[in-house]
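Dear colleague,

Thank you for sharing your sequence with our group. We've completed the structure prediction you requested, and as agreed, I am returning the results in plain text so they can be pasted directly into your records. Please verify that the sequence below matches your submission; if there's any discrepancy, let me know and we will rerun it promptly.
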Amino acid sequence: MTSAIMSPVLNDKKNSDDKAGIIAGIIAYTIWGAFPIYFVLTRMVPATEMVAHRVLWSVPFGLLIILLRRQIPDVWAALKKPKTVALLALAAISLAINWGIYIWAIQQDQIFQGSLGYYINPLIYVLVGVVFFKDKLSRLQGLSILMALIGVLILTAYGGVFPIISFLLAISFTCYGVIRKQVDIGAMPGLFIETILLIIPALAFMIWLSKTGQLQFGQLGTQTDILLMLAGPITVLPLLAFAFAARRMTLSTLGILQYIGPTLQFGCGLYFGESFTLAHALCFSFIWVGIFIYSYDALRKHRDSKLSMSKL
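Please find the predicted structure tokens below.
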């Protein structure tokens, strides 16, 4: 998942929401939310090879988008800055780890853990801000984190399962977001450079798989090969829709829309018949309450900010 969650890279430059922006945001998060369906359909392909396919097929499709949007100058400008390239390389590594964990989780019938990971991701952002950037934690933010913690403890103690996959997903994507926050580059040029930086190891890995007889591409039929080639478009298109939405919406609205993704993933878990216990129900209930509190606090702060600006 490139980002099923609102990226901290963006700046809230608008005070109102554009209808087209809202539609684009819904499209982006809906595609991200439907990812489990795609990875269930391709579950015969190991997660590591799937990550390589996402990288491989994202490069040509991403280049097409970059050309259509006339962003080649942005790409060249970024590539001339060693610090920018180094940060994007670290971001690419975090992103690849996140992709690999998520795909593996879906293939192992751990869709609920994947969903949980992206529910708690914004709360991990808050904790990182407090610990590393000395942000102040509001009472409501603290309460939302406490509710999430209670939910995780219930799942761990009562259900006997510590959601390690969820935390790895949330932490890896938080690392990606924090790194990208340090880079002044658009979402699409940034992703394109990240995939370029990953293309050599991805190709090398696929060549090794081919030589050792482990490459699944070309071995499982035309339908599967087409699905694997679609890894590029399904990676790039939702990000493009998200970038379009982010320029036409307030971050507070994007913050609410971001929960479409994990909610649809949760629904996919139910649809595919994944085991859903009482411990899961209690855990998600506490998480949802925490998310509601978090979203209310974000909306309240945004409203107060608008009122303060209007008085200037």
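Summary note from our side: The mean pLDDT is 86.

Kind regards,
the structure core
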